[in-house]
């Protein structure tokens, strides 16, 4: 994926689902439910959010985007039902409607240093959002519904919300406009290789109902200044009075064999189980196997990954694996 880092990559996946939350109480409802500050979110802005259970574990992770008359959540399709049911459970007396908008919106993403130049080849009059997660409507009458600045892979990037009927035409337009800049068409496997290189946790892998929010080792998804939200008591207690049971960590396993997800991480060849691999790949940039996983707080090596081919020595390493 050197071409993406040098120029730009057009990604048609991973798939994305959309929830629209409308109604006069949508902001206070989501503000008291989700982990981040929704009241401070202005139209044209976005931020990452989670819904937790009462034990501080992640039910779903999403990006919230504010518009003039709606809030949208973008999330992994496998978490859509969880999100609908989880939010509906907390909707009591508020005037807010939760609807699945996936059938009317399709997502494409463009990542790499040439992304903005390619988009302006097609829409020279369009003012592109500059700040991460800011967003703007597309040109009137075009297939582009909304453009989101989303530096998701540790690279400059944009997510395009597209009318489904205009998706194929827009893909061709992007490939043609991007050819002089060295655009490549990249698949979902390439996306995940780049996001693992960037140390980015992902729904279902590093963000699921076995993971306490604090274990991500980042406060990107939470505001501790906003007041109460579901699960706030637990995650605040861990932040201010204790430490998380585990932390998301990076590992460099020896060799070229990629360990399967859920492989156990051992301390010493014959010692205890101290962690688990959540995502792994052969890094296109580094030419070596890299892995994300959760490790018991305070553990130091030597570590081994218990894989089908045997015990693989692995070195704990800081994240991200690749610094842009």
The coarse overall form would be: globular
Question: By CATH's scheme, which homologous superfamily of the largest domain applies?
Answer: Probable tRNA modification gtpase trme, domain 1
* CATH structural architecture of the largest domain: 2-Layer Sandwich
Give the terminus-to-terminus CA distance. Answer: 13 Å
Q: Regions with pLDDT < 50 over 5+ consecutive residues?
A: none
The Cα radius of gyration reads: 20 Å
CATH class of the largest domain: Alpha Beta
> How many structurally independent domains?
2
Structural class of the helix and strand makeup?
alpha+beta
Percentage of residues in strands: 25-35%
* SSE string: HEEHEEEHEEHEEEHEHHEEEEEE
Folded structure, characterized:
This protein is of the alpha+beta class and 324 residues long. It has two domains: 1-243, 2-Layer Sandwich (Gyrase A, domain 2); 245-317, Aminomethyltransferase beta-barrel domains (Elongation Factor Tu (Ef-tu), domain 3, Beta Barrel). It is 20% helix and 32% strand. The protein has seven helices and 17 strands. The strands form three sheets. A six-stranded mixed beta sheet has the order 8-9-10-7-1-11. Strands 12-15-14-13-16-17 form a six-stranded antiparallel β-barrel. Strands 3-4-5-2-6 form a five-stranded antiparallel beta sheet, with helices on one face. The longest helix has 12 residues, at 167-178. The model has no long low-confidence stretch (mean pLDDT 95).
């Amino acid at each position: 994926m050197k071409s993406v880092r040098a120029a730009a990559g057009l990604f048609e996946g991973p798939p994305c689902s959309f929830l629209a939350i409308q109604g006069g109480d949508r902001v206070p409802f989501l503000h008291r439910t989700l982990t981040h500050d929704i009241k401070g979110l202005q139209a044209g802005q976005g931020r990452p959010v989670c819904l937790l259970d009462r034990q501080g574990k992640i039910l779903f992770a999403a990006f919230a985007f504010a518009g003039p008359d709606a809030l949208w959540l973008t999330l992994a399709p496998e978490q859509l039902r969880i999100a609908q049911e989880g939010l509906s459970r907390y909707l009591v007396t508020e005037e807010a409607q939760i609807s699945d908008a996936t059938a009317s919106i399709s997502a494409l993403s463009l990542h790499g240093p040439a992304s903005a130049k390619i988009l302006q080849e097609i829409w020279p009059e369009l003012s592109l959002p500059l700040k991460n997660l800011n967003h703007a409507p597309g040109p009137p009458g075009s297939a582009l519904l909304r453009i989101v600045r989303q530096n998701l892979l540790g690279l400059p990037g944009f997510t395009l919300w597209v009318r489904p009927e205009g998706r194929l035409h827009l893909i061709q337009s992007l490939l043609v406009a991007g050819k002089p800049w060295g655009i490549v068409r990249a698949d979902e496997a390439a996306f995940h290789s780049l996001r693992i290189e960037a140390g980015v946790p992902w729904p279902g892998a590093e963000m699921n109902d076995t993971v306490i929010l604090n274990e991500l080792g980042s406060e990107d998804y939470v505001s501790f200044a906003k007041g109460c939200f579901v699960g706030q008591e637990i995650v605040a207690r861990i932040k201010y009075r204790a430490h998380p049971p585990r932390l998301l960590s990076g590992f460099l396993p020896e060799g070229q064999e990629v360990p399967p997800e859920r492989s156990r991480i051992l301390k010493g060849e014959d010692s205890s189980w101290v962690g688990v691999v959540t995502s792994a790949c052969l890094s296109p940039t580094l030419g070596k196997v890299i892995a994300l996983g959760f490790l018991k707080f305070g553990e130091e090596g030597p570590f081994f990954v218990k894989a089908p081919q045997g015990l693989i020595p692995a070195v704990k390493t800081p994240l991200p694996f690749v610094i842009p």
